[in-house]
Specification:
- It comes from Didymodactylos carnosus.
- Keywords: Cell membrane, Ion channel, Ion transport, Membrane, Transmembrane, Transmembrane helix, Transport.
- It is found in: Cell membrane.
- This is Innexin.
- Belongs to the pannexin family.
- The chain has 458 residues and is mostly helical.
- The chain folds into 3 domains: 230 residues, de novo design (two linked rop proteins) (Up-down Bundle), CATH 1.20.1440; 127 residues, no CATH class; 60 residues, no CATH class.
- It has 14 helices and 7 strands.
- The strands form 3 sheets. It has a 3-stranded antiparallel beta sheet with strand order 1-5-4. Strands 2-3 form a two-stranded antiparallel ribbon.
- Strand 4 and strand 5 form a beta hairpin.
- Helix 2 runs antiparallel to helix 4, helix 6 runs antiparallel to helix 7 and helix 11 packs across helix 14.
- The radius of gyration is 33 Å and the shape is elongated.
- The protein starts with a helix and ends with a helix.
Length: 458
């Protein structure tokens, strides 16, 4: 079992590193959490199967084999916990003791937790492979681009951009086919409306990759919250937060029992019977120490704090991606910055006056239209500026500043490039590449995609 765990840890740490198709928040769960849990599983398994997990205080007449038998039978059977301040009952009842059922299965519990952390990544890998994108290939190639010579680097960038371009065009055609298919079906009015809303969104293309990505994010989030809740309930269901209770015990100076939980008692009781040759049955009650529980309680305390940290990070990552993918101003500014740095768009000056307001109206896509002639200024003044803002314009140069804006032609192209060509699937792909490579490579990819789009729409 230990060799299997070492092999699993090696696969997680090395085998998946070269196909990073996610972000840090996902890797916190599917890689670092899995590694931590596998290490703990190996430690607990070694203690159980190599060391002595239990030691029972047996009667004086027990020989060495009797003691060994008592230890073994008490380990595989269910011991029970009775506090020393309470009288030990002759026949234990459910209301006077706590049976301990699970300490033999701690390695399997830890492995189950590790599998739950890894499961969302399997779902994401399976779903994104059906979107048309090979995210792993894109990330792997983009990571190695900086090691190439200038000629090979340029060819690699163009190759990746053309690959993304082909997938985007394929998605667009499939989306149009779906629309035609559903239009021909006679479905119930409500279902037809929902289908139309899903397929005919303002992106005019498929969102398969986006939906798959957010679904995996929800799985990561549910797993983190669920495991934290279950572990907290399992460790100490009398309190809201086990870890905070431990910190409180430390602060009040309870250094001896700061991490004790009834789930991992260090001293338990065990009842067993021995039948001799005369068919006489002798019943024994022995007191047993479980040194492995001292180890288990510290491990689960570390896991509790790790789960709390992972839950907060996963929640933050989920909200970050929601804002990044559904707030147009954010991804528009990112794309615009890349295109400006690669000199793919033409900028000129729009005038700003001392009152802080531009005489240029804003378009629906958050970009200012630029008109500089006196005739245009007068026309905009009369059409756009409300009467309460019509103050005297001072034309002195020291009271007028200038800023850059998109030309009208580039503004229209940029809007179509962002919303109709890339869509959220394309934007998501660029975000993932950026998270796993660097800004320069992402900017070069965006510039080549822009060139391909402009050449197609001349």
């Amino acid at each position: 079992m230990t060799l299997f765990l070492f092999d699993a840890a090696a696969r997680v740490t090395h085998g998946h590193d070269f196909t990073c198709d996610d972000d840090f928040y996902d890797r916190l769960s599917r890689r670092y959490s899995v590694i931590l849990l596998v290490i703990f599983t190996i430690l607990v398994s070694t203690k159980q199967y190599v060391g002595e997990p239990i030691a029972c205080f047996c009667p004086a007449h027990f020989t060495g084999t009797h003691v060994e038998y008592a230890n073994n039978i008490c380990w595989i059977s269910n011991t029970y916990f009775v506090p020393f301040e309470r009288i030990l009952p002759k026949y234990p009842q459910a209301d006077t003791e706590h049976y301990i059922y699970f300490y033999q299965y701690v390695p399997f519990i830890l492995m189950g937790q590790a599998l739950l952390f890894y499961f969302p990544s399997l779902v994401w890998s399976s779903l994104n492979s059906k979107s048309g994108y090979d995210i792993g290939m894109l990330v792997t190639q983009s990571r190695h681009i900086d090691t190439y010579t200038s000629d090979i680097r340029e060819k690699s960038i163009r190759h990746l951009a053309k690959y993304i371009d082909r997938v985007l065009e394929y998605q667009k055609q499939k989306h149009l086919e779906y629309i035609e298919t559903f239009k021909g079906l006679k479905l119930k009015k409500f279902f037809n409306l929902i289908t139309f809303m899903i397929l005919n969104n303002h992106l005019s293309m498929s969102n398969h990759l986006l939906i798959s990505f957010l679904f995996s994010k929800v799985l990561y989030l549910c797993n983190a919250f669920g495991q934290l809740y279950l572990l907290n309930f399992f460790l100490l269901n009398d309190y809201d937060m086990y870890g905070f209770r431990v910190l409180k015990n430390l602060f009040v100076g309870d250094n001896e029992n700061w991490a004790i939980t009834p789930r991992f008692p260090r001293v338990t009781w065990c009842n067993f019977a021995v039948r001799n040759m005369a068919d006489n049955i002798h019943e024994y009650t022995v007191q047993c120490s479980l040194p492995i529980n001292l180890f288990n309680e510290k491990i689960f305390l570390i896991i509790w704090f790790w789960l709390y940290f992972t839950t907060l990070c996963t929640l933050f990552g989920f909200l970050y991606w929601i804002c990044s993918l559904f707030y147009p101003k954010l991804y528009e500014n990112h794309l615009l910055r890349y295109l400006r740095s690669m000199k793919r768009i033409h900028l000129h000056h729009a005038h700003m006056y001392s009152n802080g307001h531009s005489v240029i109206g804003h378009s629906n896509n958050h970009f200012s239209k630029t008109l500089t002639s006196n005739i245009d200024l007068e026309r905009i003044w009369n059409m756009k500026v409300s009467t309460n803002l019509k103050t005297k314009i001072i034309s002195n140069d020291d009271q007028r500043s200038s800023t850059t804006a998109l030309t009208h032609t580039d503004e229209i192209l940029f809007t179509d490039f962002t919303m109709k060509y890339l869509g959220r699937d394309g934007i998501l792909v660029l975000y993932i590449i950026n998270k796993n490579s660097n800004e320069v490579i992402t900017g070069e990819l965006v510039s080549v995609l822009w060139d391909l789009y402009r050449a197609r729409n001349r």
